[in-house]
Amino acid sequence: MEVKIEAGWKTQLHDEFEKDYFKQLSDFVRNEYNTQRIYPPGKLIFNAFDLCPFTQVKVVILGQDPYHGPGQAHGLCFSVNDGVKFPPSLRNIFKELNSDIGKPIPESGNLSAWAQQGVLLLNATLTVRAQQAGSHQKKGWEQFTDATIEKISKEKENVVFLLWGNYAISKSKFIDQQKHLVLTSVHPSPLSASRGFFGNKHFSRTNEFLVSKGMEPINW
Is residue 146 annotated as a catalytic residue, yes or no? Predict the structure, then answer.
């Protein structure tokens, strides 16, 4: 399958696209889109990569699975399309942003503007069946996104990785913490946010680090 993805990523991840597991994954995903209702829309599977070219990556936020409700997922972790009600975790992200840097709660949950400033909003699994959370896990996506994290760690420096919750934190093994800043906390889900997501100040800490390395801060 010809993978349509931003040119810099295509170069960096070329070896992954040639591996047997990715070819099997492509066959599985293609069949799912042909026979089931799958999110996000096919053309947005690699939206996180397309909006945030490899050369521009300054921050990585890691999610687990795309949203599985109608109109929500558009290829960026935690983000929803304009006009879609905020899922609970996203609402809590905005609450922390407000208390950390005073940013008003936005009207839209679309985080494309973050991606366009160098924030890679990466889900570990890039597709999901409608109303079936986790339905495309362990099909090959995790191997691909782990390789993506490793590639960023190896080829870049001074990237901030925001790892929220145990699943995301487990990916820290792919990151060279001598070269990059890794910030961890519990997940922004309502089940855990009050146990350490609120007050983690990850947004201001990210910007302080970027500025200290001579980079533009993110306009969250």
Answer: no
